[in-house]
Write a structure and sequence with these properties.
The chain has 261 residues and is α/β, with parallel strands linked by helices. It is 45% helix and 14% strand. It is built from eight helices and seven strands, in the order βαβαβαβαβαβαααβ. β4 (89-92), α4 (110-133) and β5 (142-146) form a beta-alpha-beta unit. It is globular. It starts with a strand and ends in an 11-residue tail after the last strand.
Length: 261
């Protein structure tokens, strides 16, 4: 098993915080992001910070990681980086999709639905299939995807993403069920409401969501990317080898409280 991890969506938010934390844990970081403008600069700064932490063992590519062509092009390069050894982790943290209602003035289109479900759900399956075929997943490898409470709660504009997240959870369960016999585990991680760039894209009421979450959450605060990164770090330990086909909540108990969206 190599000391490399692969993060899809590594520039900011949960993916960025996890990349930094795992670098501190001694892992090499292979990351994909798809950013422009100021966020692209943030990704570059994070890469430089990680390089200083883990002695330059970091590779970032600014390209659409959900494209099949990207997978086919870069998986051989990933194999070169790891020396052909399996990656310790594949983390899907891509937050890009359509946030619009099914009905109304601008109902979601088939193109928008297909794109959202592929990018935020199905692409994890195709990455896993291709990595497994290339012998880049092995005993002790972890596969994670970030889900959300919106997976099972209807809310304004979240329909397409909710469908994608529900699909991702099913994909992770099935991956873990099929590959568990080889010591490869797959789990969904559900953070609570977190003040990240992705949250601002979901609703123009995001500031109100934060205030309501601070009241609703049993621990009286929102989730932080560092909370999530710490959990991922913990789940890479050998003591977590038997956690499989599960949803892991990192929200201070938020999902057990009444919904007030």
């Amino acid at each position: 098993m190599s000391k490399w991890v692969l993060i899809l969506g590594c520039s900011t938010g949960h993916g960025g915080a996890t990349a930094k934390r795992l670098a501190e844990d001694g892992y090499g970081i292979i990351g994909f992001h798809f950013d422009r403008g100021e966020v692209k600069k943030q990704a570059k700064a994070l890469k430089e910070e990680i390089s200083g932490i883990n002695n330059g063992r970091v590779h970032f590519w600014n390209i659409n990681a959900a494209a099949i062509e990207t997978m086919d092009k870069f998986i051989p390069q990933i194999a070169e980086i790891t020396g052909g050894e399996p990656v310790k982790m594949l983390l899907h943290s891509i937050a890009f999709g359509s946030t619009t209602n099914f009905f109304g003035e601008k109902p979601v289109t088939q193109k928008q639905m297909d794109m959202t479900v592929h990018v935020m759900g199905n692409s994890l399956l195709y990455w896993t299939q291709k990595l497994y075929s290339a012998d880049l997943l092995g005993k002790g490898s972890r596969i994670f995807g970030f889900t959300s409470e919106g997976n099972y709660v209807a809310m304004e504009g979240y329909g397409p993403v909710s469908v994608a997240k529900a699909g991702m959870e099913a994909i992770l369960r099935q991956i873990g069920w099929e590959l568990g016999q080889f010591g490869i585990t797959a789990n969904a991680i559900q953070p609570g409401v977190t003040p990240t760039r992705a949250l601002t894209k979901i609703s123009d009421r995001w500031e109100d969501w934060i205030k309501r979450t601070e009241y609703r959450n049993p621990m009286r605060r929102t989730t932080t990317p560092e909370d999530v990164a710490g959990t991922v770090s913990m789940l890479l330990q050998s003591e977590a080898d038997f956690i499989n086909c599960s949803t892991i909540y990192v929200d201070g108990g938020e999902h057990r409280s009444g919904r007030i969206y």
